[in-house]
## 1
Amino acid sequence: MARLTNLNLSDQVTNELGKAIIDGSYNNETGFPSEAQLCEEYGISRTSVREAVKMLAAKGLISSKPRQGIRIELPEKWNFYDTNVLTWMLASSPSLTVLREFLQMRFAIEPQAAALAAKYGTKEDIAEIGKALEGMRAAAQTPDGDLHKADLEFHTAILQASGNRFFSQLKDFIRTALNVSIQHTTPAKGSNEAIVEEHHKVYIAISEGNVERAKNLMVYLIDEAMTVIEDEIKAQES
Amino acid sequence: MARLTNLNLSDQVTNELGKAIIDGSYNNETGFPSEAQLCEEYGISRTSVREAVKMLAAKGLISSKPRQGIRIELPEKWNFYDTNVLTWMLASSPSLTVLREFLQMRFAIEPQAAALAAKYGTKEDIAEIGKALEGMRAAAQTPDGDLHKADLEFHTAILQASGNRFFSQLKDFIRTALNVSIQHTTPAKGSNEAIVEEHHKVYIAISEGNVERAKNLMVYLIDEAMTVIEDEIKAQES
DNA sequence: TATGAAATATTATAATACAATTGAAGGGAA
DNA sequence: TTCCCTTCAATTGTATTATAATATTTCATA
């Protein structure tokens, strides 16, 4: 077990088990270990094991009943919008398929968020988007500026500006999606200015309250990434 | 404490505390009770209290550290895509605002899901949509048929057919959204046939693989509900 | 005042005991 | 045999107690 001493024992075990469940190391055919077995396996008390089990149950990964033991829930019950679950899933299968699923979600969420930001965004929220944009511009002009990080800020600022809890809750989700995205898409270097310019257009549309335009421009932004992925998937299949 | 004897003690306490946290009965100013205090308050052992606390922590509602005690996390950390959290939130504030937020999410998710279903849906998935549609038709023609339930099935079948885990994971979310929606929107009775017909069009578009049309028709479906809500909100404000 | 050490309150972990639940095995009767 | 009932056993559920770890507060000292 990876000893992250800044984490509780139960948190550590939660992590280990979560990863193992999601990557398929455990399954209900071979049988999931009982509490007692987990105690032995990790050399810890039942108290901690139970706390870990409860946390995993809270995330939808497992359930447990007397005499029946601990069972892995069907994957459709897993809460993929939980940051940990998401991380565990990506650790186990960072495939192009997952990346495409991410992009499809971004395609649904972000244009709508941009539209809402244009419609309802407060001055403060929109100022944050502007600040993120400045960060992108600065990073694009500096030799080793972290454009990617600034990009993340821009997109999350828009989610925040939507004024809708369900959208802004997806900040971590989108961050993760963008991070994975970056690892796959070969960065078309040299086009930094173009990237910033496209984001700038989105910002303008939002700050002007141009709902439809904000949405369309965001669609355009994501569509580019989507195209790259679809091509890669096609290349792999053939 | 509501004694739901089919639930664990820790589950019961999780429920009680979850609700109380979300409706604001507890807050960090007045101070959140310590484990010992919770034991007294609910008359249970520390074991159960701790398990409940861990579950709430897993859902992002609280965190706890030695000497510092249990603290409520910022609402932006709360995992609203967790079924329990969602239920607790609705129990505390079933306002029009929440309903609008729900609809905005549906507006983002469902048209895209319909598009994906049209593009990638398997025969089996699409057959399920068709079956749900038949259910709607039957319910619409029967005097006291449950059209609403059949409607739910239709929409969740589309999410399933998207072939994207992140979309199909939102089935419970959308179900809840639809349920709340029904409670608010005065059912424009007499138009049952029209409703079924509109859903039928969506089904046709999906089964024919007509991506754009599927998306647009779904937008239309949700937009109607959205309009009703927006009007209600305006009426309330004035 | 600033620094550091000690006291303290709270969570973190462990060990143990017993209760509750439920699936399976076994035994008796139709 | 087949069905139903009882008994048994394995596993989780709950409680109690004790100790460790941690971080805040207090207080003494330079």
Note: The first strand of chain A starts at residue 62 and ends at 65.
## 2
Amino acid sequence: MTRSSATAARLDSASGLVTTRERWPGDTLARVDQADRGNGPCGHCDLGTLAFCDGFARRTVTSLMRVQCTLRFEAHDTLFREGDTGVAVFNVVSGAVKVYKLMPDGRRQITGFFFRGDMFGFCLDGDYAYTAEAVTPLSVCRLPMQRLHELSETAPEVQHRILLRMTAKLAQFHDHVLLLGRKTARERVATFLLALSERARRRGDPASPIPLAMGRVDIADYVGLTVETVSRTMTAFKREGLIDLPSPNHVAIPDTQALRAASDGSA
Amino acid sequence: MTRSSATAARLDSASGLVTTRERWPGDTLARVDQADRGNGPCGHCDLGTLAFCDGFARRTVTSLMRVQCTLRFEAHDTLFREGDTGVAVFNVVSGAVKVYKLMPDGRRQITGFFFRGDMFGFCLDGDYAYTAEAVTPLSVCRLPMQRLHELSETAPEVQHRILLRMTAKLAQFHDHVLLLGRKTARERVATFLLALSERARRRGDPASPIPLAMGRVDIADYVGLTVETVSRTMTAFKREGLIDLPSPNHVAIPDTQALRAASDGSA
DNA sequence: CGCAAGTTTGATGGTGCTCAACCATAGTGG
DNA sequence: CCACTATGGTTGAGCACCATCAAACTTGCG
């Protein structure tokens, strides 16, 4: 069974897991997953070494377990909105998340995609600066920022790990700003596909037939182009043999070096 | 006297301060300022509450003082380059810094400007992801990242403060990505000028006749346009009465709301 | 089968880039 | 004191790239 009773199913039990409605602000769509199942350090997820709590002292992991909360969302569900008071950070257990900002006239810029093992929703004081929305069915591990802060008094490694994640994200932003500010349409699309491929490789997944979790519109709103330009560019790449598109949502990269050349204009 | 013997002066004593050549990698241009003069918590700068060490426990401040180092640069000096191993973070005491990435064919994207009180050069493991260059004569407080990390074992507030700075920077990046990905030339320039004005206001400086520390080329490379477009846009704003340009390096904003309307297309 | 959503393709036009010249200011040396 | 130069900023003409508008195609689903 996939889901027989549509919206209602999301609020009570489904897929054999005990779930309850979540009470936190903005989380009306979330289902809380109370089942323990996973090889992760805290037993609540199967992220293994990708888990936020991986490698922490037993005591620290226990503290995190107590405040941790695994949530599930459907595609297109909103996790939180720009302007909501930021109270928690999220770790993606499975699925994909997009994070975006809107302009008054509806223009949208996606500022990040997050996949298995990624952390998002950094906020210390103040509100979320962006909206987070599930791209696919999604499972996330939520950690209240306040408790993380308290915990870091006694366990500085917690804060240090957040620092590491944020540093990585900052470096990513520098690259993305370069892409948006100075790259051509071809270079943007090539860079985007390469980044997905690189990421897959780093995670041990095959680097070449990569699945595209997001649609063309989302890609466009991420690389600062229109759907049409993204589509045209990808078919152009296909014509030129730079990529193959077995299906609209799968991209094969026969020659990484060639695509890399296309990604910075050295082609 | 301003400076009589040009380049040589930079390497020995100048302006009445005892200076020596700095030995750290990439810092061949820096002069180390060994004079104590300032109202800051550690006595090495006059940043006051803007100082990184402001509000820390006496013991923590002392630790920071011992590893701290105040450096001076001339405009166009390079502090560090993309690819250099990242060993320290910097706090701007006076002057302005730009941080940028280059593409193989010379295209440049400035990813940030930093002014009095700003912190840059975050790096944990690995290399700097960008080049940092002085825009004006510059004075910075350098803190070795390694010691900050060690210090945070006993003083978690150190790491927490870095976290705060990084969170702010992340939020800025979200805004800037929106600007680069989705805004028109007019909106970009308006947003840039408003951000400078806002910043001045927050720091207690007058919000309206704001000095432009950087040239048109730098502005263009920051907002993802060409010099010509930036120049044209600014004179257009002047024609329309949105701004005034008493000199090329000073912008007056008669009506903030009007400029704000121009910054997000609600005009 | 018909509909909806997503993707692709086509025709056309506008925004901002390119190339080029001109102007303003400050510094330099005769 | 005044060319002379260098640097940075402004202005103009033409064009390219990508956005816009429009329509056809594909796929999945009721």
Note: Residues 215-217, 227-228, 231-232, 234-235, 248 of chain A lie near DNA strand C (CB under 10 Å from a C1').
